[in-house]
Design a protein that fits this description.
Radius of gyration: 16 Å
Strand order of the largest sheet: 4-3-2-1-5-6-7
Number of domains: 1
Order of helices and strands: EHEHEEHEHEHHEHH
Number of strands: 7
Number of helices: 8
CATH architecture: 3-Layer(aba) Sandwich
Structural class: alpha/beta
CATH topology: Rossmann fold
Helix content: 40-55%
Shape: globular
Largest sheet: 7 strands, parallel
Strand content: 15-25%
CATH class: Alpha Beta
Length: 196
């Protein structure tokens, strides 16, 4: 296995959801990461969309880092096929380690855990705790109403347009992942090009 050129944290559901097309989306995300010599950083489970992203990443040559709290090892069926599986004490440690190991963040469809992880890294970015790219994959219109609500928060004066601009939004996995990769810091881009 070659050295990964970048790492991306993917936040997504530990369930498959009602739309069978979202399973294909999860697989496409993993495929893109693997085929582009990337490394997946994710919640470490075998279940749902998260399991499909990890499986697809490895199937296409990518490396997988899983981070899972002790309490969820059984519930989320910890993926012992990860290249690295970190079992941590709690959710705080999980999120901190995932953020540390990632160069960028992507939220695909998921539930309240996905929302919480997305909004936390978004908040951290607007506070200046990191400058890593963040994306929302609005696959099959899953996030349409959330995005409309976020527009309402701007109109209501609680969110600024510059805060919205900190997140890239797209409906095509390959395009959005390519945009996130292009937004990586110059050192990562130089390494990607073989200049370092």
């Amino acid at each position: 296995m070659t050295t990964p050129l970048f790492s991306i944290a993917v936040y997504c559901g530990s369930r498959l959801g009602a739309d069978p097309g979202l399973s294909d989306v999860a697989r496409a995300v993993g495929q893109w990461i693997g085929q582009n010599r990337g490394q997946l950083v994710y919640g470490g489970g075998n279940a749902g969309l998260m399991g499909l992203v990890a499986e697809s990443t490895q199937a296409h040559g990518g490396r997988v880092i899983g981070v899972i709290p002790e309490a969820l090892v059984g519930k989320e069926l910890a993926n012992h096929a990860c290249d690295e599986l970190h079992v941590v004490r709690n959710m705080h440690e999980r999120k901190a380690l995932m953020a540390e190991r990632a160069d960028a963040f992507l939220a695909i469809p998921g539930g309240i855990g996905t929302f919480e992880e997305l909004f936390e890294v978004w908040t951290w970015r607007q506070l200046g705790y990191h400058d890593k790219p963040i994306g929302i994959l609005n696959a099959n219109g899953y996030y349409d109403r959330l995005l409309a609500f976020l527009d309402d928060t701007v109109q209501a004066g609680f969110v600024s347009p510059w805060q919205m601009d900190l997140v890239q939004i797209g409906s095509d996995a390959a395009t959005l992942l390519g945009d996130l990769r292009a937004a990586l810091p110059p050192l990562a881009q130089a390494f990607d090009a073989g200049a370092v």
